[in-house]
Amino acid sequence: MNFKKGIAIFIVLIFIASTMSAVSADDVEYSLTNGLIDLIVEENGLLHVHETISYHFDSTANGVYRNIPLKDNQEIKNLKVSTKGAYCDYSVTYEDNKAKIKVYLYKDSEKTQKISPNTNIDVNYEYDKTHVIKLYTDTGELHYKLWGDEWEKDVKKVTAVIHFPDKKGVEYWLNPYTKGKGSWKNNTLTIKSDYIVSGDYLEIRAAIPLSEFKNPIYGQVINSPGLAEMKKIQEDYENSNKFANFGFLVVDILAIISIIIPILIYIKEGREPKIPYNRIYEREPPTKDMPAFVNAMQGGFGESIGKPNNHGFQATIMDLINRGYISISKEEGALKNNAIMEINYDKINELKDFEREILTILKPFEINGKISLDYMESSLRSSNIAEDFSRSIENWKTNFKHTYLPKTELKKYFIEKGATHMKTYGVIAIISAIVLGYFSIGSIVENAVMSVFVAIILGIIGIICLIIPSTVGGKWTEYGAEYNAKWKNFKKYLKDYSLIKEHPPESIAIWNEYLVYATALGVADEVYKAMKMIEYSDNDYYMTNNLFLFYYFGGHHTLHHAITTGISTATANNSIGGIGGGSGGGGGGAF
Fold it and tell me: Which among 168, 340, 381, 502 is most buried, taking Cβ atoms within 10 Å?
């Protein structure tokens, strides 16, 4: 899994609660403002249900639907549907062990016009449901989802009123136990719950004395005891939630404590040595190192010391142009300047391995021995070609650090230990955040809410640890610190036109070297502008200078665009798939 995919998955998991809501079938914009459920437990075992679902429509709509699950031999009898705030018709079908009710809403009595936007409507469902009440040998049981987990939208408030034959001897439990609160008045239990998100539910389990039922012909008779098992189920459920609650608390504390680890890594491994070097800028390249090496020693966000970036790749190509291994010309017949590169294969045996690898990467774009940069850029809009190109560049960067650059050489400049620890912590932190977010989002455990925020913070810290420069966790040696300071000061000189104007290179030929290093340092455009504005007596040299022609014919920018086009095209095809939903309970929506 690549880094971008890891971040994408983390974000998806952290915000999974918001993605659980499905889009309405016809893009109907509405919200559920209230759910009122009134249940009457009859002495004959019948459950009388009266539901009022309150909708606010922000757009026009055809109507709403309600799916009611039917288990075992349950039936719905005496169904009545009515509305307040609109006229209605309705239809009922029975399939997939559900009663599916569609309610068509109209703004006029003739039932010819759809409801208007900004309309509040109450939909009432009244029916009797058989074989919901279970009758064991020692107790009766009402186990009922007051609000199901298949609703399209969140609901702002749910109130359930349950009328028992008698309050005496009734025990009840709410699941999830954190969702609602109950209160008694005579034989009536009222349960109130604030906001319930789509995909969550509110359920009651009540143990009712058998003496409350007279001739329970509509109940489900079970010839075995049930009270002890009911209590055990609820007790185990509550104990497991208490344990989970404690577990979330412990994990949150450990996660928060772990956030100081990057600070400790920096204190122990990342503080830089003091050096006597104190010059303001450098007028000449401080060393004669290859531009790829100079680039690899810069580091930056998301980059590690010793591994070059795209600027290093491009600077190496320009260095090969400057040294005569690649020649530059203008494409014949082109309406605009377009650089053509031609590789001098007679001399490539003189090159280092990392330089020959670059020529291998460019070769697929060669036609009749020449490489048109315009053609190269347009070819890289093809996803297959772009993916191969992007993969080849990434392999070149990795090979440079781990194959072409000896570890003993890198250790002279930079100590990677702390940077490695920082990135290791970043990976562990992101994985931990994903796991914590996955288990905490949607959990009914009280401390899970805090765990969501801890997961977000931990994930952000992990991402920061991965993308911060290697120099934050690792550190330069004294030799490397002075090397880095000198090249930074040379970069400062290249970026400041006033400095170049006051202290220009001694000849135009030296500009070539400056352009190559400026590309490695990411400031090539500034040098090219200065190069054009400072006059030399040998102006004809411009038009015989391969590197100047490379710029003049737009090669620098076209090559830069070709590289970024290839990488962006390849990245665009690495998409993340969607997340599915579950099943259960009842629900509804609008159409």
Answer: 340
